[in-house]
Amino acid sequence: MSGIDSTFFSYIHAYMPSIILVIGSVVVLLSNAFASAFSRSTSLSLCVVFMLASLLFCLSVSHRSYVIDIVFASECIILISAIMLMLLIFSRHRFVEFQTPEFYPLYLLSVSGFVFMVNSGNLLTIFLGLEVGSLPLCAMMAFSRRINGIEASIKYFISSALASMFFLLGILFFYIYSGSFDMSSAISLYASGNDKDIFRIIILFFGAIFMLGGIGFKISLVPWHSWMPDIYEGSNPVLAGYISIVPKIAGFAVFAGIFGDLFKDNVRGYVEDLIRALIFISITVPNIAALLQKDLKRMLAFSSISHSGFALACIYLGSVNTLIFYWVLFMITNIGAFGLLWANKPSNFEARYNYSFDKFYGFGKNNPIMALGIAFFMISLAGIPPFSMFWGKIFIISVALDRHEIALAFVMIINSAIAVCYYFKPIIAMFFNASLHKQHYEDNATLLIKTVTFLTLILSAGGVFVVSYLFDFIGLFDV
Known about the structure:
Layout lengths: L1 H13 L1 H18 L6 H20 L1 H4 L4 H20 L14 H17 L3 H20 L4 H32 L6 H7 L6 H21 L8 H8 L2 H23 L10 H22 L4 H21 L3 H24 E3 L16 H4 L1 H14 L6 H15 L3 H27 L8 E3 L3 H15 L1 H12 L5
Antiparallel strand pairs: 1-2
Helix pairs in contact: 2-3, 2-6, 3-5, 3-6, 5-6, 5-12, 5-15, 6-7, 6-12, 7-8, 8-9, 8-10, 8-11, 10-12, 11-14, 12-14, 12-15, 13-14, 13-19, 14-15, 14-18, 14-19, 15-17, 15-18, 15-20, 17-19, 18-19, 18-21
């Protein structure tokens, strides 16, 4: 009995970050239900308090002993991103989605689902976390009550349903192959090289394809990426920033747990070649599509898909540390970019979240400080030295060269050069095109929004110091 109790409490302890967030969602829901009037400030403050409590528990020494490095890093990235994006909600203008009491408990439930997902070692509990994390996002998008927001909600729901179907089929084939729901048992058996039965290999291959599809929807790999630009365009910058960071790092953590054993040696098989091909097209195709975009958020959506290809390359190259470096730097830069977009509200915001390039014409003259901030984050996302994303990309390319993946390194270098072209489009629009119409943007910034964006700007500018700290920090763990 004592052994059972010990196991039970160990599970409770391991999943405590998610439990704290679920308790927080119930508290926020009840506080709004029994309050005489809804208070955005109260709901926002309670959400931040519970997310901070969850983060502090993750940082505790006792909790870290229960998780591996990629899990702990993913928990921290998810919670820090969620807290910073929650602070952006406290804007000057009030929007209907953030004046909806149900938004805040759903936000906490979504975060708890993705934290639970990265903590799980069982395919069924990973699926549970995937559903709990994804479904609240559909409702949060629809709360805007705009036609584009409702459209984005429907598209995200459909893509989530497809991802769930693919993931369940992947679980089925993996279970048929290995007889276990353990996250990496099927791939570990395949990687050992002891299984020569061609029919079992075919079963595993189909399982890998379906599992790649399920995870590919979440981390927006090509060809499962088509929903991403429409979701960005239909969502406000806060939710777009959340979708670009939180579900993806959870997906990468699960991907590394399932497929990580394949890349410990230099032996390559059918599954490895499939993943390598996905990396090539996921880096290249969205980069070309981003060149054709006329809306800044749609451009950032396609660039985010390309960044997912870079992040997946870290797992393929067997370097989880590089993935952590890359996604921390991407988190900092992306939150800053979306924070500045949120700080400047389009004048037709009630109709559509529209950030078309022509509306940025003359923005550098009308609002030079904000324009310089947006330009800085575009340059950083482009990977221009010495700013944050330069260090992320240079580490991946270095690892690729060390692993003798010359073709992959070449593709990453070429696509980094292509990215510079489209990241400079908003800069040219702001500083080198005269405004043909009235000013299209209104000030939506508050002290909290300015603080978050300024903090991310400092961290992006000092990317080398962030990387130096991460080197020391990750050195505390065994990889």
